[in-house]
Design brief:
Number of domains: 1
Strand order of the largest sheet: 8-7-6-5-4-3-2-1-9
Mean pLDDT: 89
Helix content: 10-25%
Oligomer: single chain
Radius of gyration: 16 Å
Structural class: alpha+beta
Length: 164
């Protein structure tokens, strides 16, 4: 992990692990939203610089970045990871969220995704750009809408933050 991090790289151009990705300007949202899919179907949602939600291919939350904190799943539980910079290094300090904290975190994520999906369904967005390697399905925005419509109302936590 670098000691000095840029705000956010150009995800549309540089997030090559996301084989398909789209950047959208959404009515009512201050920042653009970038959504990308890995080849296995794992989805990542970047609401500007923050928050970020990353899911595995089964649609389970595996990692997040919210309010300058990193979150990962471990054994189906959420772990908050706080970066502390010293003169010599960057240290990560972890703590597991309790049930109430996890429920509040997931409620916020569900609301964010639901609001975004509602804006897509109401066509309240503009495509800024997209990358699609699937010539049979070049409309990444439609894939995002399909993914959001198919997800359960309640977000499930992955057993691990790693991709399989």
């Amino acid at each position: 992990m670098s000691r000095h991090e840029p705000d956010r790289e150009d995800l549309l151009r540089e997030a090559t692990a996301l084989a398909e990705r789209v950047e959208l300007r959404v009515a009512g949202m201050a920042d653009n939203v970038v959504v990308g899919f890995r080849r296995d179907g794992a989805a990542s949602f970047f609401f500007g610089v923050d928050p970020v939600y990353q899911f595995n291919a089964a649609g389970e939350l595996r990692r997040a970045f919210v309010g300058s904190l990193l979150y990962k799943t471990d054994g189906g539980r959420l772990v908050e990871m706080r970066r502390e910079r010293t003169a010599q290094a960057v240290e990560l300090h972890s703590r597991e969220l309790d049930d109430a904290e996890s429920a509040a975190f997931l409620s916020r994520a569900e609301a964010e995704l639901s609001g975004f999906h509602s804006a897509l369904m109401a066509s309240q967005f503009e495509v800024v750009g997209q990358v699609s390697h699937d010539i049979n399905s070049p409309n990444v925005t439609a894939k995002v809408s399909t993914w959001l419509a198919a997800r359960p109302a309640k977000i499930s936590l992955a057993q691990t933050s790693r991709l399989k």
